[in-house]
Design brief:
- The chain has helices at residues 43-51, 72-76, 95-100, 106-117, 125-131, 146-150, 157-170, and strands at 2-3, 6-7, 26-27, 34-36, 39-40.
- It is mostly helical and 171 residues long.
Length: 171
């Protein structure tokens, strides 16, 4: 939801007792269709999320009863990425997403895309990067950083997008 012009989660937003409730302005997330009252239609947002194939992809076939182990150092690389709850606060705060949400994945989905690129157990990095090779992927990000300022989980989607750009430049 949007409280006084800032996207955030209603469940963690404190309303000051000394502030009259008439001064608090509450809207649904901006730049999304509204289903009813304050409920945005997240259908397209979740389709974009599904388009990045947000699951572990392997080229080899492993015994499904065995774990794919990861070093503590590799696991630490995922901190700040896997905690995203897909609330779309960051995406709906992004001007590039406002004007191009039909083609630009937005900060939240790109953060999740990088989460799988950074996972040492995933073996489809080149395919994941190939999906980002277009003018409307990471290159629509103008580093305004509204996404990072508004994230209720204090994550940094802007940094994840920058990391994807670095990976694309290297490959």
């Amino acid at each position: 939801m949007n409280f006084d012009g800032r996207n955030t989660l209603a469940c963690i937003t404190n309303i000051p007792k000394d502030q009259p409730t008439t001064d608090l302005v509450i809207y649904p997330l901006p730049h999304m269709f509204v289903v009813k009252d304050l409920v945005p239609d997240m259908t397209y947002f979740y389709k974009q999320y599904a388009s990045i194939k947000p699951w572990l992809q392997r080229k080899d076939t492993l015994d499904p009863s065995k774990e794919i182990l990861q070093s503590p150092e590799d696991r630490k690389k995922l901190d700040g990425l896997y905690e995203c709850i897909l609330c779309a606060c960051c995406s709906t705060a992004c001007p590039s997403y406002w004007w191009n949400q039909d083609v630009y994945l937005g900060p939240s989905v790109l953060l999740q895309a990088y989460r799988w690129m950074a996972d040492s157990r995933d073996q489809h990095l080149s395919e994941r990067l190939a999906q980002m090779e277009n003018a409307f992927s990471v290159y629509r990000c103008h580093t305004i950083m509204n996404c990072t300022r508004t994230c209720p989980k204090h994550l940094n989607p802007g940094n994840a997008i920058a990391q994807i750009k670095l990976l694309l430049a290297k490959n």
